[in-house]
Write a structure and sequence with these properties.
Helix content of chain A: 25-40%
Helix content of chain B: over 70%
Oligomer: heterodimer
Number of helices of chain B: 14
Number of strands of chain A: 14
Strand content of chain A: 25-35%
Order of helices and strands of chain A: EEEHEEHEHHHEHEHEEHEHEEHEH
Shape of chain A: elongated
Number of domains of chain B: 1
Largest interface: A-B, 32 and 24 residues
Strand content of chain B: under 5%
Radius of gyration of chain A: 24 Å
Structural class of chain B: mainly alpha
Distance between the termini of chain B: 20 Å
Largest sheet of chain A: 6 strands, mixed
Number of helices of chain A: 11
Number of strands of chain B: 0
Amino acid sequence: MLDVKGLRKEYGELVAVRDIYFQLHPGDVFGFIGPNGAGKTTTIKMLATLLEPTAGTATLNGIDIVRQPEEVLPLLGYMPDFFGLYEGITVTEYLEFFAAAYRIPKAQRAAIIENVLELTDLTVKKDAYVETLSRGMQQRLCLAKSLVHDPILLLLDEPASGLDPRARIEIKELIRELGAMGKIVLVSSHILPELADFCNKIGIIEKGELLVWGAVDEIVQQLQANRVLEIKPLGETEPLIQRLEREAHVHGVETRNGSLYVHFAGGLEEQADLLASLIHDGYRIAAFREESLDLEDVFMQITKGEVS
Amino acid sequence: MKLRTENPLLRYQLFGFTVNRWKRQPWLYGAVAVGVGLTYLLVFQLVAFNQSSFSAALNLCLFIMCLTAPLMAYNLFSLEYEKQTWESLALTRLTAKEILWGKWGAALARVGILTLLALPMLLTTANLDIYVSGSLRGKYPTVLEPTTNLYPFTAGVFVLFSWGALIVSLGMWLSFRLKRTLSTASTLYAGQVFALALLPMLYLTFSIWETGSEFISAIGSYWEGFAWWLYSLFTARAILYLNPFWTAAELQRLFLQHHSNWWLPSWEDQAYEEGLLYLNWGFAQGFTYLALALLFAGLTYRGLKYAWRK
């Protein structure tokens, strides 16, 4: 389990990350969302032991990331936002280098490298020189390198940035598979549709502050306490607007393209009652639906667009 | 505790990309190797057939070392930063010592290879004596015997290697600190020009060619030699005494066969040579270079410990 407790990073006056807390369990794929400069990379670098936090701590399976970085290194894999690869060697030689650097016994290396190449779909490129690979393949090789020592926590900083659509889909599939393998995967991104597909948990960070974190469904539900109902009436709209504004749970009504958008504070029961009462009162309703929230709506509702 | 002998970084630095380069472009690299080999033989012939002095050969080797040693170290760490590979390396289980040894060891090995390549040239000009007559007949001389050329030869080779070691260590540290390959290379080359040519020229100009030779002639024991070293390190004369080219010129004075007036050594010349021997001339410089090399390696190690959190 990854347990982050009050992690904070200051650079002089600037607070890059402000006392953040969250917990992740095996199999969790955590989308770390925030605008550029919000503190995502700083947080990831602290978790990767590359930066020392100003305050707070984090433990991975009980091992303190801040105080025992040597013990935690074998347990974590990290793929930086901007990464490079050693050139002039083949894909297999590259992975052999990292397998040796992670102290994997010689006898086990070949089998592990074969498995990792298969997982990342790079088997056909095993004898290719690193610098001849496409950007997408290099990204997968970097991920493969992060997997050779079978880490339990994977920190992926903007893993799909700069990739073409096909490579993006492939890397998403790979991340989903890693989550299914029981690894804790922390993926940062500012491209929300990218994360919506495969994250079961999200955290939204802005100005160094983790504004919200938890299961995607729970956060959406919390935000939908202030839901918007779309009602498409037949006939005149004015009497219906006046009728709606008298309802206790209605906070406002907007008209767009012949539809009414009702800001509604009630739950599902109250929604059903509202529809029944409108029909009972003789209003002709062609469509009645709740506007669903996606990750982008969640993000827009929570953040203010500020950076630290 | 299990001793770890495998260092993937050292292997990569020494062979990794080099072997593959040969495999990928055998004709290109083969042609370059032939060209370098022929140039080496040509230079070797020039030295041998012109009966060059030891100091000329040593100066040539030092010049080549000054040119090539920066190339062995100028991108050791800066390339990791420029290519953004350092984070991946820092997060492996390699310790700071292993990373340092991987980089430094590879650079030192190259300096060692270059020194070995210089040996035939230095040996040709050294005229090493073996005892062919008298009570020592059939025995080999030792470095400590001032009556043979083995002393200046060994001191010269030591100076050559240790100067290379100093340059690669300084290059490694600069490469770590500056994080830029171009800045490191230009600092190393400009620094050498400044330290080896401009500063000695300035010193000689303003000291009216006062090199301290009268003091050296007056040194009468190893203890006085040691005290003189300590003293001279705090004077501007250190600019000359720690210069490997100046050392090469002084070592020449210790050669029996090439002595300017070996058939009639004057009292002053003999006293000066003895002074040089008491100063451990050549070895003292070499050990100073190695001490500075260790210092820069230590600074790099400290940097790895703190900046890379190793």
